[in-house]
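job 3f2a | input accepted
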Amino acid sequence: MGKKERKGIDPYRIKDCNNIIIASNNSYSVKASNQMRRFVYLLYKCDHIGQKSYFDQIRNRFNKADGGIHLYHYLISIDLEGFNPQKDALMTKEKPDMQQSAIEKLIQWLFECVANGTSSNIFSNAQLKDSPSTLEFVPIDDMLTEFTKWMVEESRDTSSYTRDHFSKSLTKILGPNYKKQVNRVRRRGYDLSVDSLR
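job 3f2a | predicted structure (198 res):
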């Protein structure tokens, strides 16, 4: 069963949810995680936005000039021998970008901290270059500060990451944290190394 929702019309259920095209004004309408194998992601050009006459012409070709029947004959002439829809769908240029966008922002940030040595790095330069396997205590508050900087640099919305939400998300990824005295203040954080995050 699928649910069809049109603007201004109550949603209704349809029995067959195969061959559905999902179009949206959002940058993406369905997250492309690695488990989403049966979606083909396409990015359409915006050249004809607002050109009603262009779309009227296309619609007229389908409705009045038998364009639909020609498209139908073209589609049924495609040889499907060896086609297995259970395997991965086409890998378009847009799909890897969509998969990257679907990864939680916190994981993207941790990856960049390790892989790219960005300005919002949680590790000292010495640890990155000289001793990547050495554990270093990193307080959660310091990580949140650097993560927020990264989100601002990437022009992303930081409002959804309160300290509590950030801390819980870290626990899901890194496991439980603990308290340690740093500069005579007890702070909650993690013993991390570059290698352990890799």
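job 3f2a | The beta strands are 2-6, 9-14, 136-139, 178-182, 185-192.
job 3f2a | closed
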